[in-house]
Every structure is written in C-alpha cells, then in structure tokens.
Amino acid sequence: MTELPTESESIPEIRRPFWRKLLRWLFWLTFGFVLFSIVLVLIFRLAPAPSSGLMIERWLEHQIASKAYRARHQWVDDSTIAKAMPLAVIASEDQNFFAHHGFDFEQLEKALEAKQRGKRLRGASTISQQTAKNLFLWSGRSYLRKGLEAWFTVLIELLWPKERILEMYLNIIEFGPGIYGVEAASRQYFGKPAKALTRAEAALLAAVLPNPHRLHAARPSAYVRERQQWILRQMSQLGSVEQLQRANP
Q1: How many CA atoms lie within 13 A of 200 on its CB side?
Q2: Residue 201 half-sphere exposure, CB side, CA atoms within 13 Å?
Q3: Could you tell me the pTM of the whole model?
Q4: Where is each Glycosyl transferase family domain found (predicted)?
Q5: CA distances (Å), 60 to each of 43, 56, 149, in order?
Q6: Which residue segments constitute the domains of the chain, with CATH numbers given?
C-alpha cells in the first residue's frame, strides 16, 4: 500500500517547457500589438493627426545631429483644400487609388519588369501605403518596416473610407524640409491657403513628392516643370476625383 506524502515531504514542482512559455508570451505580445494598432487606426479615422512618425523621425535626426529644426504643419479638413490638389496627387502618385484595396499589383509588376530590363527600380507604393508609412512608421527598407507598412495599409483600407485616406495623406505628406501637409506647403510656396491653390500650383506641389529634399517647388528645375506639365495632362484625362469615385464605387 502506497503511503501518502507527509507535510514535511515536498511535492515535485511541475514545470512547463520553455517553448510553451515562449509561445504564450509571443501570443499575448502579438494580440496586444494587433489590438493597439486597430485602436490607433480607429482613433485617426476621426481625429486629426497632430504629428506623424515621419515628423518625429526628422526631429530626432536633427536632435542627434544638434541641428536647429522647425516643422511647419497645419491640419485642414478636405473641404478646405482645393479640389485640384487631391486630383494632382492621384494623377502623380496613384492613378488606381479608387480601384485598388491598398496595393497596386499591376504597377508593382511593371516596376519589377522595368528593373529586370536594367532600369532603375521605380516606386510603386500607393497613396494608402505612403499614408500608413508616414503616419505610423519610420523610413527605411527593412523587412520589418515593410511588413508593418503592409499591416497598417490593410487596416486603414478596412477601417477608413478612401476620402479619409486621401485627406490624411494630404495633411502629413512631406513637401520639403520641415514642411508637412498641403496647407503648410501652400502658404510656404505660394503665400495662400490650400483652398486657393490653382491647378498649376497643385500640380507643381505634386511634382516634388517623389523626393521633396531634392526637388523644389520654390525653385523648380526643368525636370520639376516637366513633371508638372505631365501631371496637368494626366489631371485633364482623369477628369475629377468625383468621376474617379463613380467609376470605382
């Protein structure tokens, strides 16, 4: 007959394997990140963005280098932005904006084909991807950053209407060193609010977006002027933002 252990005898401790603890930790970490990111995206569906990941990154770069830094940024609703401006960035950056769900695989395939022919790899990021990256993340080309960009792109496409994505993009995109958003850019370069922008001025602002640190709206080069004219032609062909929305309900 087996005797029961006495009080003085210790009962062996049952330890869980380390990998189970690790999996549990990873599960809760992932769950917390997913929940946090969803809440964050839902907040910015309604709330203006007082800053962005890119603005914070630029500020930190200047602090580390002990350089003076002044950021110009003023949030404006889409109703106070000239209609030519969203059309200009769509014409310049993402003509399939209302047709895709965050990723333009057709343009990505064309970019990869061009690289295979020996040409420089051109950007194929959509307005949705650029919004996700600039608002929530940092610049760079790591797999981690690209993976997070894809995740936040999916979230904003699911949780925001297209109009909100476009409004956010126009309010946080970098138009020059320390100049963020169309309102700050319009006042800096043309001395007027974004609501008063002409088609030519909107196209000029859109022309510098591929590289706002090398391309300048204040002193446009021949290349920038050429891009401006191309964007104006594309704008005429596209018609209006409302027409694009109706064509891609």
Answers
A1: 4
A2: 20
A3: 0.87
A4: 68-235
A5: 25, 6, 21
A6: 52-64+79-247 (1.10.3810.10)
